[in-house]
Design brief:
By secondary structure, the protein is an alpha+beta fold. The protein has two domains: 71 residues, no CATH class; 71 residues, no CATH class. The chain has a five-stranded antiparallel beta sheet, with helices on one face. Helix 1 packs across helix 2.
């Protein structure tokens, strides 16, 4: 009777060990197939090399993102628009101003004034949301404030 119990326990033990050995072998075969290596130290070396390579790629990508962030400050990011009547409501609000600013509120204001003779366009330089060489009209200031508000 004791012999049957020992044989049963031993059989269960062999089945459990076989099950775990099969799982380990399957995992090992998957590693060999994925890495193309047959020795465990070669497999680990491949994994470590790939990890270092990935780390270097992430570092390079972060540098590139920082460069792009610095460069994007100098691209027009904010736009303001204001319609107005250039001649006291005699022609309606056909004139308009467009303000285009970068990330540091530098850029230009373009004023399109509609007259009986045609359309006139004027541009002014803007630095720090203020007119530089010329004073901004109230419509131009409104367009700059609208653009500035899009921060």
């Amino acid at each position: 009777m004791l012999m049957y119990v020992l044989m049963g326990v031993l059989s269960v033990w062999v089945l459990l060990v076989s099950f775990f050995l099969f799982r380990i072998k399957r995992h090992y075969d998957k590693l060999i197939k994925t890495t193309g290596k047959e020795r465990i130290d070669d497999i680990l070396e491949t994994i470590l090399t790939q990890g270092a390579s990935t780390k270097n790629e992430v570092k390079m990508i972060r540098k590139e993102i920082e460069i792009l962030k610095e460069q994007s400050v100098h691209v027009f990011q904010k736009v303001g628009f204001k319609r107005f009547s250039a001649f006291e409501k005699s022609m309606g609000e056909q004139s308009f101003v467009i303000a285009m600013l970068d990330g540091k509120d530098n850029g230009i204001v373009i004023n399109f004034i509609y007259t009986h003779d045609g359309l006139r366009a004027y541009a002014k330089k803007v630095t720090g949301a203020k007119g530089v060489e010329h004073v901004l009209s109230k419509e131009e200031e409104t367009a700059v404030k609208e653009a500035h508000g899009h921060s």
